[in-house]
Amino acid sequence: VLAVAGLSAISAAQAADLTVGFSQIGSESGWRAAETTVTKSEAGARGITLKIADAQQKQENQIKAIRSFVAQGVDAIFVAPVVATGWDTVLSEAKDAEIPVVLLDRSIETANPDLYLTAVTSDTVHEGRVAGEWLAKTVGDRDCPIVELQGTVGSSPAINRKKGFDEVVAAHDNLKLIRSQTGDFTRAKGKEVMESFLKAEGGGKSICALYAHNDDMAVGAIQAIKEAGLKPGQDILVVSIDAVPDIFKAMMDGEANATVELTPNMAGPAFDAILAYKDKGTVPPKWIQTDSKLYTQADDPAAVYKSKQGLGY
Ligand code: AHR
User: Where in the sequence is the signal peptide annotated (predicted)?
Assistant: First the structure.
């Protein structure tokens, strides 16, 4: 595991010869849009030609895009895999064409890790644990029925953020997960599913906390909680993941309580790894791990909100 580094000292002339194809998932969340923006600017800063294909949340579109990048003979392929399984065939094709593949922000399940050069991701199990531990500490011994909004079914962050959180719940008798459903990482579905949770729980007065696998779903759910006549952040605690500016706005209003930061800059370390690999044959570690930092209402959300401006958001 390597900590993320800044811009490498590799020559601009060498970087300018490089074309990278990026199969991006889509634009399901504020975080995702920022990741796309940052990837463009990180490529630009290094003089790298970037070709982006938007898969509109579909794995089949990503597979098509990867095949097209292979046919075009790009120098490297970046993929943010929408789901964790089903990549071996297409990644074997890239390997046969000797095109290195870098996984961005999501991991895959494969029996052959040689199919990709490296993965730049956070520890998504740890993120779930951090969210769970914040909740356990905040509620103390009080009984706490929790509802969970999961990310995209079959995606590595949805699987792992659930796993990490579930571990904490299992270790505390007073924490109880009463409802859990996917909101597909979107604001609209987060709101819709939260509405159904509130209805199913007789208006929601008995719900102690919401755990959302990303901030966008939390923001949608906050709206649903308000429309149900309850106070998000007080009647129902809200903890989520990403640290996008909108969740800090909600924290400023007392409507969200905590978030775990996911950097949208996965591409910087990925470009550096590819440049070092192409230039000097340096093989990067299999996992380049990005940081996960907890923010709460005690962390001056207004200042954090301001500091996020210009970072792709
Ligand atoms: O893979 C990262 C996740 O994807 C982000 O947490 C979420 O916002 C996005 O859609």
Answer: 1-15
By three-state DSSP, how is residue 161 classified? helix
Amino acid sitting at position 211: Y
Q: Tell me the ipTM for this assembly.
A: 0.99
48-86 pLDDT per residue, tens = 999 999 999 999 999 999 999 999 999 999 999 999 999
Question: Could you tell me where the DSSP H helices lie in the chain?
Answer: 12-16, 30-46, 59-72, 88-96, 124-139, 156-170, 187-200, 215-227, 245-252, 267-280, 301-308
Report whether residue 30 contacts ligand 1, using a CB cutoff of 6 Å. no
Cα 243 to ligand 1 centre (Å): 11
- DSSP letter at 236? B
3-state secondary structure of 95: helix
Describe the crossing of helices 215-227 and 187-200 by its angle, rounded to 10 degrees: 40
Residue 185 CA: nearest ligand 1 atom is 10
Q: Phi, psi at residue 300, to the nearest 5°?
A: 50, 70
- How far is it, in rounded angstroms, from Cα 73 to Cα 181? 41
The model's pTM: 0.95
Q: Which ligand 1 atom is at minimum distance from the Cα of 244? A: 8
Chain segment 154-188, per-residue pLDDT in tens: 999 999 999 999 999 999 999 999 999 999 999 99
User: Is the dihedral angle over the CA atoms 307, 308, 311, 313 positive or is it negative?
Assistant: negative
Q: What is the pLDDT of residue 15?
A: 62
> Residue 104, SS3?
strand
Would you say the CB of residue 32 lies under 6 angstroms from ligand 1? yes
Predicted confidence at residue 310, as pLDDT, reads 85
pLDDT tens string 228-261 = 999 999 999 999 999 999 999 999 999 999 999 9
**Residue 106 Cα: closest atom of ligand 1:** 1
Taking the centre of ligand 1 as the mean of its atom positions, its distance from the CA of residue 212, in whole angstroms, is 11
